[in-house]
Design a protein that fits this description.
Structural class of chain A: alpha+beta
Shape of chain B: elongated
Largest interface: A-B, 54 and 45 residues
Distance between the termini of chain A: 22 Å
Largest sheet of chain B: 3 strands, antiparallel
Distance between the termini of chain B: 46 Å
Number of helices of chain B: 5
Helix content of chain B: 55-70%
Number of strands of chain B: 3
Number of strands of chain A: 7
Order of helices and strands of chain B: HHEHHEEH
Number of helices of chain A: 4
Order of helices and strands of chain A: EHHEEEEEEHH
Radius of gyration of chain A: 17 Å
Oligomer: heterodimer
Chain lengths: 163, 113
């Protein structure tokens, strides 16, 4: 555990930081994985958007019975191209004041021809202790209600818990 | 899997208590040492340690030669529960970054900034 309540993942990508930042943000729908684990619309025609600049929204839009629905995951709170983008990450049942935070760093590598991309997802301990999803629930139920993104994870976690 | 992940999160929802955990990851400490290191009063440190102890995150041990001196250390088990959750979060982002890498490296000629 690196610092209490955060998850961190890094990967080296063979493009320069400026390109990595632009592709990560502008082309997010092209690379963001499909399926219920990653998108509300699953493999359907949902589109992930990340609007540029502080205050921009991270959201998914999808067709629901002929009308477009929008579900916002959070707002951009840090926008420093090509080095860094920060956005809130809020599951559907979080209160308005509750959010975890995702920070993405783009660090030059190999003389600037490659980029080390690091995602840090922090703030899991900030969700208020008396949140309905946390009150008196078993961990499995807690995790289930945490999110809209975690379908597959619950299965693996349950297997992990029961294994 | 630890069923008290909820309590773990609550106890760690405080920056001082996270700092205490950070100190204890380096090894056992006295309460007074941690109060000094974190610029916290001793009574405040006692309260934080009580919360951490009730959450099962830390345990105390009296020294053989002086029962008044308590040494605190981390309990491993609750962190395994939290770690399992964070592992899942990391798995999610690892999948996403691999997909991002595959996309970003696919068309290098078009990736001039």
């Amino acid at each position: 555990m690196s610092a209490g309540d955060q998850a961190r993942v890094s990967l080296l990508v063979a493009v320069a930081p400026a390109a990595a930042f632009r592709i990560f943000t502008e082309e997010i729908d092209a690379w963001w994985r499909r399926g219920l684990k990653y998108r509300l619309a699953g493999r359907g025609r949902g589109i992930i958007h990340l609007e540029a600049g502080v205050g921009g929204r991270l959201f998914e839009s999808f067709d629901a019975g002929g009308e477009t629905r929008v579900v916002e995951t959070g707002r951009v709170t840090g926008w420093d191209p090509p080095a860094r983008v920060v956005f809130e990450w809020r599951a559907a049942n979080f209160a308005p004041a509750e959010a975890t935070e995702v920070e993405v760093l783009f660090q030059p590598s190999a003389g600037g021809t490659s980029t080390l991309v690091t995602v840090t997802h922090r703030g899991w301990s900030r969700i208020r202790p008396d949140h309905p999803v946390r009150h008196g629930l078993e961990v499995e139920a807690f995790i289930r209600s945490m999110g809209m993104w975690w379908g597959d994870l619950m299965t693996s976690l349950r297997e992990h818990a029961e294994g | 899997m630890n069923p008290d992940l909820d309590q773990t999160f609550a106890a760690l929802a405080d920056p001082t208590r996270r700092a205490v955990v950070g100190l204890l990851r380096q090894g056992p400490h006295r309460s007074s040492e941690m109060a000094t290191a974190l610029a916290t009063s001793r009574p405040a440190m006692s309260r934080h340690l009580r919360v951490l102890r009730r959450a099962g995150l830390v345990e105390e041990e009296g020294l053989d030669d002086d029962a008044r001196v308590r040494i605190y250390q981390l309990c491993r088990e609750p962190f395994a529960g939290l770690r399992a959750w964070l592992d899942e979060v990391e798995g999610f982002w690892a999948d996403q970054l691999r997909a991002f890498k595959a996309h970003a490296e696919r068309k290098p000629g078009k990736r001039r900034p």
